[in-house]
Amino acid sequence: MTEKMTNPPSTMLTLADRARIVSEAEGSTIIGVHFLRQTPVFVLGEEALLFAPAEKRTRVAVHDGGILTSVADPLRIVTGGDDGKLVATDRDGNTEVLASDERKRWIDQVALGPDGAVAWSTGKIAHVKTGKGELREFQAASTVGGLAFFPKGFRLAVAHYNGVALWFPNAAGAKPEALEWKGSHLGVTLSPDGRFLITTMQEPTLHGWRLVDAKHMRMSGYSARVRSVSWTHDGGLLATSGSEQLILWPFDGKDGPMGKQPTMFAQSPSRCTRVACHPKQPVCAAGFADGTVLMVRLEDGALILAREADGQPVSALGWSPEGQVLAMGTEQGDARVLTL
């Protein structure tokens, strides 16, 4: 791997003292954070969402038990829980149960698609509900590990043990295309231009395919499993957690990262746990297991301290739509909002 030097701590700019504290270690792990309009919404590990505008915070109960996953678009946050429910929550805190599993199987994989479509999984079954309310199902070879819609067209990537199935929900009876690679694939993402598909694995590595010819890409060198990935605003880099620095793989050429080394920034004594790229600028926020959050300028590696280390592993990061606000959450329930 190729490492680029970053600013030493003595010259690091800090904005950590400007962050607004929403909650301090309330006990419920924050598993995600999203923005509806300009309002940061923290997804708690148990039962509720925490709406945190500047003037007043509000808890909205959405599940009867643990919340396992969340995704969002500009209009809603969709969550899956261990109560077997898929729930959408809008900007005003109104909730709608989109699906409910009769056997109350966990819903821990969710993805949002075009025209209001939503996908989720229960065991081996991947479900899709179109924007018109039509239901589709596909049975994977094993338990679904990850879901992602293609950026163009109505196609869904379904990660599972030993590979990924590429499924057209509207093509009744058509056999999905199979991308095979031995091992447990626990997450999936597609490049914004739709040319590359990448999976996170149980092992400390990523695997990928160039979709035009299914050529393999293996991205290794991590010290732990990669649990968080984020594409830069132009789609040229994939930021990843899983090591003691921020690791970025290049995808700006026709071959992606094949034959290339990643760039590493923000060397740390602690492992990177979460990453979130700025929606408009070459900047990435990186959270670490010691509680530190750094904003990294990708042109030269310059650092801004957004949250100081306090021993609480960072579990959620999110930018507002214009990139003027960064929201941060930890495993112990500490939620903060930094306005730039």
Automatic annotation (TrEMBL):
Gene3D superfamilies xrefs: YVTN repeat-like/Quinoprotein amine dehydrogenase
Domain Anaphase-promoting complex subunit 4-like WD40: 279-338
Record keyword Ribonucleoprotein present: no
Pfam families, A to Z: ANAPC4_WD40 (PF12894), WD40 (PF00400)
Keywords on record: Repeat, WD repeat
Keyword Repeat: yes
InterPro entries: Apc4-like_WD40_dom (IPR024977), WD40/YVTN_repeat-like_dom_sf (IPR015943), WD40_rpt (IPR001680), WD_repeat_EMAP (IPR050630)
Protein name according to UniProt: WD40 repeat domain-containing protein
